[in-house]
Amino acid sequence: MLKRTGPRHEKETIIQFCEGEPEAHIGTASAGYCQKLIKKGFAPSSLGERWAEFRIPKKSVSIRKPRRQASEP
């Protein structure tokens, strides 16, 4: 599992989509995001002390519209 060390602003998650490949590549330094992916059943393709890489089907990645903010009265 990833170590929870270092400042929060240095923990990034990168999602890469290539048109010719059936999988998306996810690299993360966030222990929380790594744990979420493992709970959903995805195994890391490589796992280090501070970085994990996953390869998951593209259809498993969802890009949603931002939530609408409630207007102030």
Give the number of DSSP strands.
Answer: 4
What overall form do the CA principal axes indicate? globular
Sheet with most strands: 4 strands, antiparallel
Backbone structural class: alpha+beta
What is the ordering of alpha helices and beta strands? Answer: EEHEE
Radius of gyration (Å): 15 Å
Strand order of the biggest β-sheet: 1-2-4-3
Distance N to C terminus:
46 Å
- The percent range for strand residues is 25-35%
- The residue fraction in helices comes out at 10-25%
Number of helices: 1
Low-confidence stretches: none
Mean pLDDT: 86
Oligomer: single chain
Task: Provide a descriptive summary of the structure in words.
The chain is an alpha+beta fold and about 70 residues long. It has a domain at about 15-55. The protein is about 10% helix and about 25% strand. The protein has one helix spanning about 30-40, and strands at about 15, 25-30, 45, 50-55. The protein has a four-stranded antiparallel β-sheet with strand order 1-2-4-3, with helices on one face. A hairpin with a 4-residue loop joins strand 3 and strand 4 (about 50-55). The protein is globular and about 40 Å long. The relative contact order is 0.25.
